[in-house]
Fold this protein.
Amino acid sequence: MSDAFTVYPAIDVREGRVVRLAQGDYARETRYGDAPLALARQYAEQGAAWLHLVDLDAAREGGYTLLPLLRAIVADTALRVQTGGGVRRREDVQRLLDAGAARVVVGSLAVREPATVTRWIAEFGAERITVALDARRDAAGGWRVPVHGWTEDGEATLDESVFDYALGGLRHLLSTDIDRDGMLSGPNLGLYAHVRAQAPALQLQASGGVRDAGDVAAARETGCAGIVLGRALLEGRLTLADALAAARC
């Protein structure tokens, strides 16, 4: 079990609005308002130390668009921001770090060009890069890693990618069971136990399906280093105070 467990409230932004997608489907969007900065301030006031900020437009099209929001969050709060969406080039990583990001999340490119992202880990440092290996089961029961905002299946398997990145110096890994994302069906603890068994040294962030404080505690007991919270917080099914308390227990 991890000694330090981090709660990451998530703000997913599409066309300037706070939204959630069901199972990564852009056609199944729920909107929660048009004030992501105000929501970030609220999470900071409620005790969050970190924020997970996602540019959904860029995740599908490329070209991170949230730099002004990122700068405002860093300037207005004490939150450390982990952010991504559309990170395709070294210059994208540098821009986000220069704008105040504590960590940059790399998803699709991490699947398509692992050698490139491994070089970034070496250049920028293992504390500054989070690799997102989000997974969906295929017909044979294996875990595949989609790309382009989860709209296309990648060629790599999750197991292959985890193994390669563990050897390549990765420290922070974020993994979402896509079929559970935004569904309030509970996190896939079996998936996280599987990843932990493969690469116990990685700091694994759970994501997808969290319903309540019990899910937060269960992810911690499974050995995850943190958990990303989206819909449950936005809909008041889980308070940030309760999530933080579960993270400390």
The mean pLDDT is 92. Residues 6-248 form a domain with the TIM Barrel fold (CATH 3.20.20.70). The radius of gyration is 16 Å. DSSP finds eleven helices and twelve strands in the chain.
